[in-house]
Amino acid sequence: CHDEVNNYLCSCPHGTLGIICEINVDDCVMGSCHNNGTCIDKVGGFECACPPGFVGPRCEGDINECLSNPCAGPGTQDCVQLVNNYHCNCKTGYMGRHCEVKVNFCESSPCMNGGVCTALEGGHSCMCSEGFSGRNCEFFGFNCASNPCQNSGICRTLEGSGYTCECLPGSGGTHCELDTANECASQPCQHDGNCQDRVGDYACYCPAKWRGKNCNVYDPSFRGGLGREAAVNTIHQSAPSEQDIARETCKMNGCMAKAGNYRCDEECNTYACGFDGNDCTLGVNPWRNCTASIQCWTVFMNGRCDEECNNPQCLFDGRDCEKNLQPCNPIYDAYCQKHYANGHCDYGCNNAECNWDGLDCEPDPPRLADGAMSVVVLMDLQMFRANLVSFLRDIGHQLRATVRVKEEPDGRQMVYPWKIKGEGSQGVIAYLEIDNRRCTDIPGAECFASATEAAGFLAATAHAHALSTSFPIYKVQGVQDPEPPMPDVPPSGNSFSLVSSWSPWLACYWASWLPPKGNGLMESPGSPKVFSELPVPVSEGDPGGEDRTGKKCVIFRRVWKLVALLNRTGLTTRANCRQPNAPETTATLATTQLSRTMTRCGRNTSQTRVTSS
Description:
613 residues; alpha+beta; Laminin; three-stranded antiparallel beta sheet; extended; EGF-like domain; Notch-like_dom_sf; nucleus
């Protein structure tokens, strides 16, 4: 508290506001606590209440329950860590949570017909009474008369007494009762057929139009099911191409009707189906410029380097040819986020994992990629602005570049409300710039030369379900020279406003909108040439511009573009800021000129009010 004359002043600690520091600012924002931790607001900070199994200031650490060696018994094979739990894999012959119970395989008396059971390490053995045989003494006799061999095994009588079974490949055991091989391991069923393993064999359950032992015979009349071989006299059409098969799959899944429904339908998330009308790729086709000889979208982010796809057009093979980029050290992450791009170099955050401290340590001028990247996020504008730094760090980490919000000429950030036409969904649209200063300094680094390439990489990452951000990104796109969205309603308040009852789609203005020098609108120094951006051609029936009938009509949006430009460029002034005897402001002159225009176009000015404030 600072004593003043007949007053006092409070210097509030960090995280508080108000005359007497009575307001505690809520420091809990989206992403404050990881792994579903509960954020508890404190004065000047926050605290995370972690769910069981997680520790750390932000619940970022997963407790490894296997470190205490709970599976230490002799019957344990290994310990598997789970979320707030663990599981012991037991050796053969042991069971229990900690594999502490040795199984007695003779406890269930498996030996039949008076056989004597002996427990073994991984099973049991039966000593059969005279005349009986088999694993559990289930067969009587010493010859093949009882057909003891199973699964088409061949019985051979031995000299003297007894028999033996010759088993077919894939089966084994005394009576060929065991399945010794998984015939489905080689994936013999083609065209998405479902393989069922059998003793010494396999069976394919095939989709419609594909039959045969391996679903390899094209038959338009086949409705699907067990893939039996076709009859010899069946006439088949020639097998379709791979492209035809892919298109048929899209048709079968109804992908045409699902495209553009603002939801990623996974069965349509293929190149042939247009990635579900780009619903699964944030509104763009990431590989439209990829000309590699292999299908790069099938090997994107698969953990193997495919050099044919390792180029900007094919999105650097999803960074499979680069070393994995680790997240920012959890110990420093909160500090680095709080001080990100604040104009002060924090050397502990100046690394690739922590997004180069937002380039606060870089003295060189920006090296921007061509264009800007528009990103639509389905969240409230106020919430988005509150978490903007976290969003920029997430996108930058995904792209391995530094991103920032593009600014308008007056310095305002290009972040605006957004909504789906005809839908209730709302969000924000932000225009981002990509700064390659650190990327281009690294020899051989894979940098994005344009915002379109970067947008394609994010779209492809969404296709692979590998976006490492919690923000609900709906759409991305590379754009050139982005402009603020047009207003849905005429501006009002302390700006150039226009209220009208004329037809909502048409406005007329006079061909001589631009007045002669000395009598026209005055533009402030450094302001853009607003009216020169709206040229109005003289009609063919107007000789030299003298004829009053030489007027042109333009779409109503051009008028609103003029209004938006006036609002953005500061050509308006408040009435109470004008000096005595000062000339009319640009906004006042503009309203006068627009009123004259409406009169010349035959409009009743009583129905049209043009004001400035």
